[in-house]
Amino acid sequence: MKTLVVDCGATKTDWALSDGSCVRTPGFNLAHTPQNALVAILDDAASRLGDEIGQVYFYAAGLVGEPPVNLGRWFPAAKIEYASDMLGAARALFGRSPGIAVILGTGANTCQYNGSEIQWKVDCGGFILGDEGSGSVLGRRFISDYLRGLVPEDVALGAGVPDYVGIVNKVYAQPAPARWLGEFAPYLLSRYNDSAYVKELVDDNFRGLFRRCIKRYDALPVGIVGGFGWAAKEILERIATEEGFRIKKIEKTPLEGLLDYHAV
What we know:
By secondary structure, the protein is of the alpha/beta class. About 40% of the residues lie in helices and about 20% in strands. It contains twelve helices and ten strands. Helix 2 packs across helix 12.
């Protein structure tokens, strides 16, 4: 029987099997994804994964209390463990050693991990109230500057920002506004070395992560996982050093670490 590790984030969900195969579906947040959309994603994933799955480790964003779906409907022969994506990140980054785990993608989250469980965490707050360092917060701050006419013309012209009505519609009327805001992050990173404005914006976003979140924890090694963190690896390492922190590792996804963790 195969082991299935599920890494679910806001943008994408990876369904990795112990035989090395992997299926990708859209991401979702269990706290606010509509039930019909969630079921459609699970139907799609299960149809491509096949049977002979004996164990499922399901790590998901927005998992608070009882999960809103029973995965036994899709994997009836499997033993299923549900956990937050934050615990998944900590296990992937540190295994059974303590550390400060950071998720840095479209959103951001942090915790202090004692080698077996989350010891405590600073509430992330989402892209409106928190999520410092994330791609969505970088995009939110950029769009806010754009609306105020604070973005240099050459940077603004290359960003592909819609008009004011389009911006308001994307943020306040369409689903997944954080994902839309996070879509500006790759462009901004591409302008990091040729725009003083972008460099300051990106650096300040990451400094907020260290000063407002990571600084709250004990002096432990820091590990970061997530596509945005991976893309900005060199910038993050420099900012961490300037802020007095040591980054032990930065990984693009937690999958390899989680497969290793559950293989022990």
